[in-house]
Amino acid sequence: MIEVRDLRVRYGTRVVADVPVLDVGEGECVAIVGESGSGKSTTLLSLLGLTPDAEISGQIRVCGLDVRTAPPRRLREIRGARAALVMQSPQAALSPATRLGVLMRRALRLHGREATEQIMSEAMEAVLLDPALLRRYPHEVSGGQAQRFAIALAIALGAEVILADEPTSALDVTVQAEVVGVLRRLRAERGLALLLVSHDLALVSTIADRVLVMKDGVVVESGAAAEVLAAPSHPYTRELLEALP
Amino acid sequence: MTMLRAERVTLGYGKRPVVHDVSLDITEGGVGLIGESGSGKTTLARAFLGLLTPMSGNIWYGDKTLKKADLRAFRKDVQPVFQAEALDPRMRIGSSIAEALPRGDRARVRELLEQVGLDPDLAARRPHQLSGGQRQRVVIARALAVGPGLLILDEPTSALDVTVQAKILDLLAGLDTERLLITHNLAVVERLCRTSHVLFAGRIVESGPTKDLLAKPAHPYTKALRDAVPKLGGAPPEARGRTEAVPAATGCPYRLRCPIAVPECEQAPALRDAGGGRQVACHRAGDVT
């Protein structure tokens, strides 16, 4: 789903992300962890060509498409559809004056898809939301519901991989558990791949297959999540783990 | 010793109550208020700071209610620590702290910066020139400037990276002031508070020694909160019951979400003594496993 080799993202002369290898296969969950400014979000956005001011080198393939050389029309076919983006604050990403159903229908049409009630209801049910919520405005649903709606949009558009930037860090723990549950189910049932950016090592340890630890733009350690987090070899990973309250 | 006491306090905005009939003491060893967004924890903190007048009930400061207490002395004794964004972006750090000191004592500013583990030369900087962790230390230094006996901390570390959070927690744990800590982070409460109160929909559903509360929750909501926290290398966090049902307007507020609710829960449970310094408001407290 995602294949990255020798990715370098630069703003001017400053390298903000340097990622030698990043692969996410079908049904896999890979997490990028690190602190503010480590380059984890920049890495994620660069994979979909969403860092327009940055200078990028290396190879990025998402759903088989070479993101760096693909014409904009081809890129639009995967961005937001086969490769969906879920951000930290869904309510900020949803137009406040538009009902959820209208938002979903618009997104489907924008990508040239059919927007039937059935497709929309099925997508809502896949994330355990009542399809009746499609009649609501974004401010009329909770944060957890809005985040699951963002995932439902991805499902309606036939996402094969979801790139999620801190998808649960604005949510209460009980609601986070529910969103995580939905993502796990989609992985198991649909083979959905997941690239997760998070600062929460404990959360990552419970859902990720593999993990990349970033610091100051550099991947300092990577490997199987269970191994890296149980027996970290880099001092920074150890520092992160020891800092957990 | 009890520094502040809420006695059957109901709080709200306009005519709508959001905290209902809450009684709690701020005692030694740190007190935690735990709950999710909208549970009323910040509203309760505002009342303890004298920034919100109760619709009914009283906040006691020593032997006087806040309405009658000497507010000058109270404000020196009880200081808030909010998230670091509370600093004036145009003011230099030193001036921000000196504002709270008599005659803007600059030598004391340097002492305070050192006390919170900052280089005193940072006094000349402005907030945007500092990191998030440094700004949070400045906010703590400013609260300490008046020599308070109690800090009221509202999510003091939730915007910080874990390594920075760990250092701020060390700093707070080492201060000899008492604290009321408001947070949704159970691990932080465990570290800093001997006693905790769990709020749901503006009501205390469980109180007691923090360690016992988290080791063996007696209320299904406390259990749901505890089990939802991901543990390093543990099983994925588990959602229990319907996490998004709105609190019930009558009876037990948690019953629509509760996985073990019974018809009896349509009657509101009273907060009752459960032994070992614990209190719980649940008809099925004995069945929470």
Describe the protein.
The complex is a heterodimer of chains A (245) and B (289). Chain A is an alpha/beta fold. Chain A has helices at 40-46, 72-78, 90-93, 100-110, 117-126, 143-156, 173-190, 201-207, 225-230, 235-242; strands at residues 2-11, 14-24, 29-33, 55-62, 65-66, 83-86, 161-165, 193-198, 210-215, 218-224. Chain A has a 6-stranded mixed beta sheet with strand order 6-7-8-3-9-10, sandwiched between helices. In chain A, helix 5 packs across helix 6 (143-156) and helix 6 (143-156) packs parallel to helix 7. The longest helix of chain A is centred in the last third of the chain and has 18 residues, at 173-190. Chain A is globular, with a radius of gyration of 18 Å. By secondary structure, chain B is α/β, with parallel strands linked by helices. In chain B, 27% of the residues lie in helices and 24% in strands. Chain B has 9 helices and 12 strands. Chain B is globular and about 65 Å long. The A-B interface holds A 35-36, 142-145, 172-178, 180-181, 184, 199-203, 205-207, 226, 229-230, 239-245 and B 36-37, 132, 161-166, 169, 184-188, 190-191, 224-225, 227-240, 243-244. Chain A: The complex is composed of two ATP-binding proteins (NikD and NikE), two transmembrane proteins (NikB and NikC) and a solute-binding protein (NikA). Chain A: It is a peripheral membrane protein.
